[in-house]
Specification:
This protein has 204 residues and is mainly α. Helices cover 74% and strands 3% of the residues. The chain has a two-stranded antiparallel sheet with strand order 1-2.
C-alpha cells in the first residue's frame, strides 16, 4: 500500500464512521444505503469497501468507538476525584452523565439491536461486542467501588448488564418525554442506592 494511502486511511475511516452515524440516525440502519453514507462522507464505494465489508461491520466499528469513548469519559470523571474522596454518589454521577449527542447513537443502536433480534448471525456478533463492553464496565465498576470503600456482592458481569438495561430503558423514556424526564435523572436518583444494595463496605 502506498505511504500516502496509509496516512489517509485513518481519515477516510473516521469520515465514513461520522457519516454513517448521521445517516443511520436520520434514515435508519436498514433504510440507509452504502451509497448515501459514501456521498455524505465524500468518498467512493471503493473507499468504503477498503475499510468495511458491510453496513453491519460499519455499525460494529461505531459500537466499539462509542463504547471506548463512554468508558474513557467515565474513567476521566472518576480519576479527577482525589484519592479518598470518591463516594457512591460520585460513582453514580459519573455513570449517569448523558452527552447531548447520545440521542443519535441511541436511535442507531436500538434499531440495530432489533435487527440483531431478528437475525441470529447479527445477534451472535453483537453479543460478542456487548460482552467486551460489559467486561470493561464490570472491571471499571469494581475498581471505582473499591476506591469508594465498597465491594460488589453480586456478579460484576450481571451488575454491568443491569446498569446497561437501566441506562437504555431510562433513555428510551427520556427521549419520549424529555421535559418530564431529562436524560440521566433516573440514574442520578437511583444508581447510588442501587450500588449500595449490591455492595458492602470493604474491611479496613
Amino acid at each position: 500500500m502506498p505511504k500516502g494511502e496509509t496516512r489517509r486511511r485513518p481519515r477516510t475511516r473516521a469520515a465514513l464512521l461520522d457519516a454513517a452515524l448521521e445517516t443511520f440516525a436520520e434514515l435508519g440502519f436498514r433504510a440507509a444505503t452504502i451509497e448515501q453514507i459514501c456521498e455524505r462522507a465524500g468518498y467512493t464505494r471503493g473507499a468504503f469497501y477498503s475499510n468495511f465489508s458491510s453496513k453491519e461491520e460499519l455499525f460494529l466499528a461505531l459500537f466499539d468507538q462509542h463504547s471506548e469513548r463512554i468508558v474513557a469519559r467515565i474513567r476521566e470523571r472518576i480519576d479527577a476525584v482525589a484519592d479518598g474522596a470518591l463516594t457512591l454518589d460520585g460513582v453514580a454521577e459519573a455513570l449517569a452523565e448523558v452527552e447531548p449527542a447520545e440521542r443519535a447513537w441511541y436511535l442507531v443502536t436500538m434499531e440495530f439491536t432489533l435487527h440483531a433480534i431478528r437475525d441470529p448471525q447479527a445477534a451472535w456478533v453483537l453479543a460478542r461486542h456487548d460482552a467486551r463492553l460489559r467486561a470493561e464496565i464490570a472491571r471499571g465498576l469494581t475498581e471505582y467501588l473499591a476506591r469508594a470503600g465498597r465491594t460488589l456482592t453480586a456478579d460484576p458481569d450481571e451488575v454491568a448488564r443491569l446498569l446497561i438495561a437501566l441506562r437504555e430503558g431510562a433513555l428510551a423514556q427520556a427521549y419520549v418525554e424529555p421535559e418530564q424526564l431529562p436524560p440521566g435523572r433516573l440514574e442520578r436518583q437511583f444508581l447510588a442506592p442501587l450500588l449500595a444494595a449490591l455492595s458492602t463496605e470493604r474491611p479496613l
